[in-house]
C-alpha cells in the first residue's frame, strides 16, 4: 500500500458509464488522487476540466453553475445528512492493531462502504439524497477527531479517535473499499473500568453509544463546510457479546528458588481463548495479579500470586493460545486463617471445591506495575478490571483412598463411667494409613505432619456410629509412585490413641455384633470421613480441612466355636449359706485381628435358661490369637434371681455335674454387662458361650470288664470293699484345686448289673480335700441273698465294676446343698 493509503486515504477508480439507478453491485476503490466529480455516460476515462473539443468548456461551466444553483436551493445539508446517516453501511472485514503508543494504539480498519437508499424511510429524503449523491459521485472528508461517549453515564468518554482523510463513492449501491489507519486514545480509565466490570459481572444492560465529530466534507468542487456529525448506536443487552470462551489445557506447579535462599512455587498455565472476531493484533507482555475470594462476598479479594503473560499474537477468527506464569512466594495469612463462625479458611473452600470435582474460581487483575515495553496506560486501565477465571477440577475420583486402620485396639469404658458421658464411649486405638492421590499438576515435594478426622461408620447403608478422631495426631508421609501413573501418591501414616466411638444406632450395632460372632460370610462396613491434614510445602506449613475419604472394609465373622474357651484352676474365695464366690483361670482364642482392653464386664451364668449366677472380668487385655490365664471371677447363687426354681435347677446341675453327666453352663451378656454402655451389653445378648461342665474336671481313664468307665471323669473313681468288716473306702476326685469339700451325710446303694450289692448310710462328715483323696472306712449293709453280693464274693481278691446311686449333703465353708449322685463303671476291689 502507498503512503497515501498508510495515512488513511481510501482509493476509488473511475466507474464505467451508468445511469443513476443502476450499478448496485459495482465497486470503487478510492485514493486521494482520484477526482470526486466523475464524468457522465460516455466520459468513462477523462477528468473533469480536460478539453476534448471546443464545446466542452462552456458545457462544463454551465453544468457547474447549475449544480451550485440546484444545491443551494434543494440540497439542504440536513436532508443530505439524514440521507447519508440512514443509507450508509460499513461492513468491517478486518481490525488490526498496528502498534501500541504511549497514549493509545494505532488501529487499522478495513471494510466495505456503500450507500443503500432503500434503508431511508422518508421518500422525499430518499429521492433528494439519491439525486444529490449521483451528481456528487463521491465525497472526501478532511482529518477529523471522533469522540465516543456514553450518554447514560453522564457522557462518559470511552475514547477518542483521530481519523485521517477518507474518500468514498456515494452513488447508491456502489461499494468502496476502505483501508485506514487511526490513532485511538482511551478516555479516563476510571469510567472505562466501571463499564468493564459491569460487563464482566453481567450487570451491563442496554447501552447507548454516541459518536461525535466535526467533519469537513468536500465533493469535487463543492465544499459543504464543517459538519457536526453525531451518530447514535443503541446496543441492546442481548446483543452485547459475552466474555470469550476459554479452555484451560494445562496447569503445572513446580518449586523454584527465590532470592535469599527461599523457596517458592511457579504455576504455568496454558489457555486457549476463542476468537470469533476479525481482529489482528499483537498484545505485549503484561503483568497480572491472581486473586482469591475472602471469607465473605463483601470481603476484599486475597492476592495469591504475581503473573505475567508472554507476547500474544491474535489472528482474525482464530483461537488464541495464551501462556502465563504465576509466582507464589508465600500464602497470605488471611487465606489460611479460619473464617469467623467457622473452622474453614478460604484455602479450605478452594481445596474442597477442587477435591469434590467442582470448578474453582480465581480472579485476574491487571498489575499496577507495567511490564517492560508495555505502555503505562495499559496497566492503568487493567489494574482496576477484575476478570473471573474458572479452573476445572482434575482431582482424582477419590483423592483420599485406601483409608485403613490396622493394629486396632478397643477399650471398653470403666465401671464408674456415667452412661451417656464421653467417658462411657468405647474407644479405639489404631494405626491409620491413607493414600492421597496427588493431582498431576503438582510437581513439587509436599508432606503431611499432622492428621485428624471425623469418621462415620455405616453397615448395610445405615449409620452405626461416629468415630471421633478430632484430636491432632502426629503423622509422617512419603511420596510413592502411583501404579500405572506418571505422578506420585502421598502415603500418610499416623497413630490415634483412644479415639471415642459413639454408637448412634443400637439396632445396627446389634446386627454387626451378631454377624461378627455368628460367623457371617460377608461383613462389610463403610467408613466416610472428613480428614484434615497439616501440610508441609515450599510455601510453609498450613492446614487443609475436610478432605473427603471413603473406605470399605470388613471380612468374615467368626463362629463362637473358634474361641476354644477353657476354664480351670477353680478356687472358692468366699461363701454364704446360699452362694459361692469362685475364681478361675480362662484360656481362649481371639479369632479376630483386633486387641481390646476390658476394664470391667459382667455376664450371666445360666442353665436351662435360668440365671444361676454371674461372672466378672476386670482389666482384661485381649490380644489376637491365644490368650491364657485370663482371670475370671464368678458368684454361684442359684436362688438370687429365680428363687426356688433357681435352687432346684442349680441342685440338679450340681448333681449331674458330680455324676459326670454331659452338662453345660451358658455365659451370656445382659444390659448391665458394661454399666456405662447398656447398649453394648444388650447388643451382645445374642452372643452366648456354652461351656461343658466336664471340662472343669480332669480327664478319666477307660476301665475293663463289661461296664466301661466313661471317658469323662466323675466324683467317685474307685472303691475297696472289705467283706469281713462290712466297710468300704472310696477314692474321690474333687473339682476344686484349692478348696475342701465336706460330705455331711450319705445315703448310697451299690449295684452290680442292676442287682443290689449293699447300702451305705452315714451321717458323719467326710472331708474331701482338693485333688484325689480317700475316705475313711464307711459301714456297708450287705444284701446277703442278692445276686450282686454273690458276684462280689466271687471277685474276692480281684475286682469288678459297680454302679452306685446316692443322695448326699455337701458343704463348702458356709454353703450347703443336697445333691444326688449316679455313677457307673466304678472300679471296686474286693478284699477280705
Automatic annotation (TrEMBL):
Listed InterPro entries: Ig_Tag1-like_4th, Ig_Tag1-like_5th, Tag1, Tag1_C
Residue stretches making up the Tag1 C-terminal domain: 443-550
Every Tag1-like fifth Ig-like domain range: 711-820
Listed name of the protein: Uncharacterized protein
Coiled-coil intervals, chain numbering: none
Taxonomic classification: Eukaryota, Viridiplantae, Streptophyta, Embryophyta, Tracheophyta
Chain spans, region Disordered: 1-55
Domain of life (superkingdom): Eukaryota
Composition skew (Low complexity), residue ranges: 1-12
Organism: Carpinus fangiana
